[in-house]
Amino acid sequence: MKTILIISPHLDDAVLSCGATIAALHTQGHHITTATVFTHPGTATDKHTHYSQRRQQDEQALALLGAACIHLGFVDAPFRHTTWNSFSTLLFHHHTPPHQLQLVQDIAAAINTLIQQLQPHEVWYPLGVGGHIDHHLVWHSSTLLNHLPTQHVFYEECPYAMVPGWAAIRWNSIGAKAITYGTDTPVPYSPLTQIPLPFIHNYITNAHDKQASLAAFNKEWQAQPPQPFTVTQWQLNGRLYTQSPSCVPTTFFQQQCKAIACYTTEWPALFGPQEQHIAETLSQNIHNHQYCGQYWYKN
């Protein structure tokens, strides 16, 4: 049986992105530990109770899936820099600001300590789809640990990866080269603000944020090379990453939805006001009666 360490940027990302797979692996006898990086509001004392509640929600959600839970205690982006306070300012980051480089080193050191303690067979890192600054920093930290013998895996984050073409945009934006294509049919362009995903419309705060988000998305889209978006193998920094979807019976998807519902402070903005909207939104990832998440394994 395998030991798997999943690195989650925030207090819900692992469950949102990997929940059904975690539940399936647990039933097979594998040992899963999730380490969440950004779990604290720093000096914003008025938010301490809220973050304590979120950490409790995370523990409850992961327990439902059969995973152990570790919180690393790094400060969430809006409390590190007040300019990161909206959809357009938090997302669309594919390069690390110089003032965050030490933080990347610190995150990598914390993850390395866990790897030495747990000796996992695999470590799963966020790919950084959408370019959320915190997701990008965790991804960047993973590149500092590439030399370790542990299997290195990227997972596509939900709900960002549900935006058509955004995963490929991420690969291209971090300098990856497409090696193998799944199909020659490109994903058609859709304006970000017209995509019917609740999180987009709930997280965009005002007209200026809407305009800035659309402009940033269009800039990313237009910067891509003229290639199909259904790539099954990428090359990054001399290493190959091969797509390996995890498709599991929908009973595990139902477990994931129950776990997501534990995050009562978060899921309404992500999926809509009713709990049933969680499954309704995520159901687009169901194919042939199986729920599928996207993972990339380093060759």
Describe this structure in words.
The structure is a single chain. This protein is of the alpha/beta class and 299 residues long. It has a single domain, classed as LmbE-like (Rossmann fold, 3-Layer(aba) Sandwich), CATH 3.40.50.10320. Helix content is 41%, strand content 21%. The protein has twelve helices and twelve strands. It has helices at 13-27, 48-65, 77-80, 87-90, 101-118, 133-143, 166-173, 198-203, 207-222, 250-260, 267-271, 276-282, and strands at residues 3-8, 31-40, 68-75, 122-126, 151-155, 177-181, 231-236, 239-243, 246-249, 286-287, 290-293, 295-298. The protein has a nine-stranded mixed beta sheet, with helices on both faces. Strands 9-11-10 form a three-stranded antiparallel beta sheet. Strand 1, helix 1 and strand 2 form a beta-alpha-beta unit. Helix 1 crosses helix 10 (250-260). The radius of gyration is 18 Å and the shape is globular. The two termini are 21 Å apart. The mean pLDDT is 97. InterPro entries: GlcNAc_PI_deacetylase-related, LmbE-like_dom_sf. This is N-acetylglucosaminyl deacetylase, LmbE family. Pfam families: PIG-L. GO terms for molecular function: hydrolase activity, acting on carbon-nitrogen (but not peptide) bonds, in linear amides. It comes from Filimonas zeae.
Summarize the structure.
With 299 residues, the protein is of the alpha/beta class. It is 41% helix and 21% strand. It has a single domain (3-298), classed as Rossmann fold (3-Layer(aba) Sandwich).
